[in-house]
Design a protein that fits this description.
This is ABC transporter substrate-binding protein. By secondary structure, the protein is of the alpha/beta class. It folds into two domains: about 190 residues, 3-Layer(aba) Sandwich (Rossmann fold); about 150 residues, Response regulator (Rossmann fold, 3-Layer(aba) Sandwich). The chain contains twelve helices and 14 strands. The strands form three sheets. A seven-stranded mixed β-sheet has the order 7-6-8-9-10-13-14, with helices on both faces. Helix 2 crosses helix 10 and helix 8 runs parallel beside helix 9.
Length: about 400
């Protein structure tokens, strides 16, 4: 015979206790879920990307997207991070600041992403990083070397690549120190991105007691470069350093060579090397591009072997490129930082973990951060387009 005391309606005290305990447990579970950061779910963590996925700079946004997806899929196939899968939502900002602001607000306010990853461009980053800062959202791996993002006071910013100042200094080591050229001109996109490269080039020449012999500009998202070309040719430049996207740069080089103006052409990494070589359509031999990640075709490099395998798994027809490799490194760092942040990651723990851990090893590539250093890599590599249209290393890395 049961000795459980019965209450009205046939319920026992034990049953009532069990019901209360279940309700309490459910309440605590719901509260735990409610207290999770945006973008953190029971089975996944969601990142957002605002980048050009269409238009003249689309190869850059799509390349970063592909690389991040390759890294995330690699991690997910191995069980994810603390049992959660990594997910990427990408939105097209057309490489325009106003559109980028709208898309970032959607990613943060509507999609509720954990962090922003792989944004492309200086003017777009200048417009959107403050939004991320105001909402305490991590801003990870921007495809730009702009100096303002290297400010250690920007606690939500994590950079992967070397700065534009480092790239422009490497240019001048080659052109002035090694090749002894005296007449250096510049073509740059007339916006925050172009002016960042201009500033670096001017400073690098000033350190050598030199100055630019001419400056030419073009407008973002156009290929209107002919007026600038005539200005630089008139200056009889021996080298033209270039701060722009692949379509206008390719147009400049092709038209320049068609009128027998053939100085040494040197491009900043943002140009998108593979897209540039393709747009040059066989007319790119000798064009130099500075790079901020290792050579993506060097299969003897363990990182490159892992990257190529991950790339093939996410898209069997994708070809290695500098841009997607940068995206891959960015995605792997995000995964490692999530791991560091623990089973219930917060944005604060994610960012603090990067600063406190400092060193992140990726198959022989080391990213180094610190309390006053939000940039993981410092090396710059020089590459050159060969007669077959493929890139080849021109020199080793220079810090």
């Amino acid at each position: 015979m049961s000795h459980a005391r019965r209450l009205g309606g046939g319920r026992t005290i034990a049953a009532l206790f069990t019901t209360a305990l279940l309700a309490s447990t459910t309440s605590f579970a719901q509260e735990a879920v409610q207290n999770r950061e945006d973008g953190v779910f029971a089975d996944r963590i969601v990142f957002g990307q605002a980048a050009p996925l269409d238009g003249p700079a689309s190869a850059l946004g799509l390349g970063m997207q592909l690389g991040i997806q390759a890294a995330f899929q690699e991690v997910n196939a191995a069980g994810g991070v603390h049992g959660r899968q990594l997910e990427l939502i990408s939105r097209d900002d057309h490489y325009e600041p106003a559109r980028s602001i709208d898309e970032v607000r959607r990613l943060i306010g509507q999609d509720k992403v954990f962090g922003l990853i792989g944004p492309v461009g200086t003017p777009t980053s200048a417009a959107t990083q403050p939004i991320a800062m105001e909402t305490n959202v991590p801003f990870i791996g921007a495809f730009t070397g702009a100096g303002f993002l290297r400010d250690p006071k920007l606690a939500n910013v994590v950079n992967i690549r070397a700065s534009y100042d480092a790239e422009t200094e490497t240019w001048m080591k080659l052109l002035v120190d090694e090749r002894k050229l005296k007449r250096i001109a510049i073509l740059y996109q007339d916006d925050a991105f172009g002016r960042a490269g201009l500033s670096g080039a001017v400073a690098a020449l000033e350190r050598r007691e030199m100055e630019l012999v001419a400056r030419g500009t073009y407008q973002r998202n156009t290929t209107a470069v002919k007026a600038a070309l005539l200005e630089l040719r008139k200056a009889n430049a021996q080298a033209v350093v270039m701060v722009g996207a692949y379509l206008p740069i390719a147009e400049f080089v092709k038209v320049a060579r068609s009128i027998d103006f053939d100085p040494t052409f040197v491009n900043i990494s943002f140009v998108g090397s593979d897209a540039l070589a393709s747009a040059l359509d066989g007319e790119g031999e000798g064009v130099i591009v500075s790079q901020v990640v290792p050579f993506p075709w060097d299969e003897t490099n363990p990182l490159i072997a892992a990257y190529q395998a991950a790339l093939a798994n996410v898209d069997g027809e994708a070809k290695p490129s500098f841009v997607s490799l940068e995206g891959y490194i960015t995605g792997r760092l995000a995964a490692m930082a999530i791991e560091e942040a623990g089973p219930e990651p917060t944005r604060e723990a994610f960012l603090n973990g990067i600063r406190k851990r400092g060193s992140f090893e990726m198959d022989g590539l080391t990213l180094q951060f610190g309390p006053e250093d939000n940039q993981g890599l410092d090396d710059v590599f020089l590459t050159e387009i060969g007669p077959d249209g493929a890139f080849r290393p021109l020199a080793g890395p220079q810090s």
